[in-house]
Amino acid sequence: MAAKSGSRSTYRCSECGWTAVKWVGRCGECQAWGTVAETGAPGAVRTQAVSPARRAVPIGDVDAQTARARSTGVGEFDRVLGGGIVPGAVVLMAGEPGIGKSTLALDVAARAARSGRSVLYVSGEESAAQVKLRAERIGALADTLYLAAETDLGTVLGQLEQIGPDLLVVDSVQTIASADVDGAPGNVGQVREVAGALIQAAKTRDIAAILIGHVTKDGSIAGPRVLEHLVDVVVQFEGERHSRLRLVRAVKNRFGPTDEVGCFDLGDAGITGLPDPSGLFLTSRDRPVPGTCVTVTLEGRRPLVAELQALVSASAAGGSPRRTTSGLDSSRLAMVLAVLEQRAGLPLSTHDCYAATVGGVRLGEPAADLALALALTSSVGDLPLPMGTIAVGEVGLAGDLRPVTGLTRRLAEAARIGFTEAVVPAGSLREGAAPTGMRVHEVATLGEAVDLVTSAAQASRPRAARLAGGTATWDGESAWDGESA
Questions:
Q1: Amino acid 431: pLDDT
Q2: Single pTM value for the model
Q3: Domain 69-275 has CATH 3.65.10.10
């Protein structure tokens, strides 16, 4: 029996590698359906040794010039890729429908063609005429940009043989099917076969390839998980449908960093890079408004200045006040509200609270907690914070303020735009000095921060308005020294 069991086949999940002694329809590890397949007896050797076509060479004799990155012509995309795209590298670009994947890929293809390279754009979702109409609209026409509307893998590989391009764009990999694999285009087997064949062709011919992929309802890349392991770079599109801002983030990159983010503006004329996107997240006004506060967030290694807005009003629902967010984590808002009421004495449990960001940016890091708390405080007291003020810091449940990473870069970006006052956690500037022209106020607790900005806001109001108790306005002078305006 032992010998017989030793020759028994094993079954392995193509998604996560989980193994079983018998076939099952659902993986016991990742819970994926239809991914468990027979792999043969454990330890069995079925592949015979063959003479290699190319002998292994010492690493010092390898020519690395062929693996140098080439610019795509789109600066923000080059930033994400780590300087450009490497010949033979395969980039998987994923995102929700209509977010701008095809537009960016077509723009990159046209710029590469204008630089003297030949490009093959394979469209499996649209006809050649539809793609040309988009190319005319965004100005992406070029003589060496070849267009093919194909859904058969064999035909696509034949096009590669005939044209021999330097860059291949496939839109999208889920629409291409192989005649050698059963099933409809887009299923696990088809996607694995198509991606494997295209990756092998790109590696063999040193063709840079961009594969556009679909995403599932939860935002993950559709198809087998092994697809992300096979490619060299995985790029994720992010953005809200009602906003023109698009963020492109590399979640995997074998040739560069994975903490860089590219910012793009998606408009009628195509998608354009935003080297300085901070202005998109600020409201242009000549005087401050109650309920607003500016912070600096880090997207990868890039600091972005963003404005938070809050509105606190008496609740009409009695004991069930509303808590609504846009661009912020609702759980962070609930936590900040609880800390403000318990540690700073603000009566918020009977008030509706609304919090949002400007420009469609999403703030998910805890560094925005302090700015959110001060925006809520400003709305409760109907006191606008003084002009040129930013706040950066994480709020703890005990009411303490915790330092955040990259504070020097955050303050330098804010000072570059023109901010002159900053409220940060105590001890944040031990490793660096404040930027020139900016005064930094270090506070240890949320209560101290509330008292500090409330005093400055009250001092910034005109004397007549303070005595009459009227609506707060700004007279244009600094009030951080506690002097009356």
A1: 56
A2: 0.76
A3: no
